[in-house]
Specification:
Oligomer: single chain
Helix content: under 10%
Strand order of the largest sheet: 3-10-5-8
Number of strands: 11
Number of helices: 0
Order of helices and strands: EEEEEEEEEEE
Largest sheet: 4 strands, antiparallel
């Protein structure tokens, strides 16, 4: 990510000439995604509503709205909504995006 200052403020450039997939993830109250990793992509999350509980590698914390979370390729990760209302995360995936690239290490819904 690159930040550029302008007289009116600044902008953050999240991607330049990269192969990316962009999606918004909505997590229901009290729910969490599987603990997973990807071999063919890295991810950048921007927390839109929050706080959102996140784990990247062995580090876990409550990420606040506006916070950017980098998930390197191959790193285990998870997000969860500890709140009482749905919360959203903007996800930018860098690399070869396919749902077959999801390796679930733990899953509350018993998926492979």
């Amino acid at each position: 990510m690159r930040t550029t200052t302008r007289p009116w403020g600044h902008f953050e450039q999240l991607a330049t000439q990269e192969t990316v997939t962009v999606k918004t993830i909505t997590v229901s109250p009290g729910e969490r995604l599987s603990l997973q990793r990807h071999r063919r992509r890295a991810e950048l999350w921007q927390i839109l509503d929050g706080p959102m509980s996140v784990v990247v590698g062995s580090h876990g914390w409550l990420a606040e709205p506006g916070e950017l979370v980098w998930v390197p390729r191959g790193q285990r990760h998870r997000m969860a909504n500890p709140g009482t209302r749905p919360r959203r995360v903007l996800e930018i995936a860098f690399g070869d995006f396919t749902e077959e690239d999801v390796e679930r290490l733990e899953d509350d819904y018993h998926r492979d």
